[in-house]
């Protein structure tokens, strides 16, 4: 993803030039057929007519997008008004993902900075410690979070035993629980790119600033932060994007009132709503938002790199 | 190192780092500890017991979880193997076959599953199989897993290949090795640590997946995550915590393995 496939150039060769097509074919076929083609078909489905118990009727219709944005009354013949339900769900998702991103940045930046300024030999171990939880099943991590936060859970018990609170905080089934869940799910994604950026940072710049009497925190704000900004932007994207479309955290921690995009989409296919074109349209809108964000950030990082 | 005026140090950053690690590990630790609880309640601690681990393997729901674990394992092994092979071949084309017009497009296609939100991939894949009237079952799960495992296998494999100079293969071919021999006898052995890391990462990613699996699985076919999700919907029970702890251990052991292979590799 972020800088992952940067062509190094130094060790490239032309040894297998003749075999190129055969080497690439399996990847093209697999990903073309199982990732790209499905996205195209999903786009088509979003313009079809819904069948009532799931599935579609092959008849062109703008109904799905219309339902998303406009309210035409119970019988569909009222003057169209803006439909706020789904826009509201998207807006809440953006808000939840945004809060989770800011929380991750507040914890992730100091952590990444601290690790990057450890002696060389220790760094790999610190990074490893931060990454392990990412490799643990996301479902299990979300369930663990719920177990910890619930009213009779260890967190509330502990705080009550210490006398900090007199009754459970009631975190589960609130927006805060979802934000904490998302923050917990993707925190390692914030640390890694910032760590990489700080590790490459030339601390002579900080020393130069300090020699010119810049106080410590001014050095951080005016010299270090601008220099590692690409890493921060990458970290924010890596947390924000999966948070936006997440399903497990809102479903398990948020309860019915804290619906996010992921749950809205899921309900069209697995739940009771059973409106495939609408689910496909909502997915297309989510995908477009994410792609715009990724293109925007790629532009930014290109500017930064030049 | 600990100079009083060390510019690199900021007060509080160590504390936040420790807080970060506590946040990352505390929920997992709590569940691991409570999985050894003797009580049938998940709230009250009644002392240490292996009761719930016994329950996972021999209890009334053990058959369900054994089937789910077996499905997960078969899918993860097959998907990770296929993804590693596909990724190795693709990396060879991208890094060892000169410049070509579709190079950027190929890299983009390989990283596509990382850019598309998981729920969107899940919807798209479900619709795709539906449009083809492809019956949903273990095969549809497997196909979907192969696709999204490819970028995870590709990352360490391509990183490793970038670290191997082309001169090794050149030397072999100067000594009359064919290209096929240069590939199988020189490049592949040198690539092994990268391929093993790629395989392990793909294996974990497949084993962990819930969202896509949940969409493309057929009725009655469960993997461990979908079985756990179904059970958790009824409330968190102690046997779920035991299964979670076991799965957590598998992930940690595999990541540690991948890390050790990578580290040993850097030293030599």
Structural features, described:
Chain A: It comes from Aliishimia ponticola. Chain A: InterPro entries: MetI-like, MetI-like_sf. The complex is a heterodimer of chains A (306) and B (268). Chain A is mainly alpha-helical and 306 residues long. Chain A has one domain: MetI-like (MetI-like fold, Orthogonal Bundle), CATH 1.10.3720.10. Helix content of chain A is 69%, strand content 4%. Chain A contains twelve helices and four strands, in the order H-E-E-H-E-E-H-H-H-H-H-H-H-H-H-H. In chain A, strand 1 and strand 2 (56-60) form a beta hairpin. In chain A, helix 5 packs parallel to helix 10 (248-254). Chain A is globular. The two termini of chain A are 19 Å apart. Residues 1-10 of chain A have low confidence and may be disordered. Chain B has 268 residues and is mostly helical. Helices cover 75% and strands 0% of the residues of chain B. Chain B contains eleven helices and no strands. In chain B, helix 1 crosses helix 11 (238-267), helix 4 (103-115) crosses helix 6 (138-162) and helix 8 (179-208) runs antiparallel to helix 11 (238-267). The longest helix of chain B is centred in the first third of the chain and has 35 residues, at 62-96. Chain B is globular, with a radius of gyration of 23 Å. The mean pLDDT of chain B is 89. At the A-B interface, helix 1, helix 3, helix 4, helix 5 and helix 7 of A face helix 1, helix 3, helix 4, helix 5 and helix 6 of B.
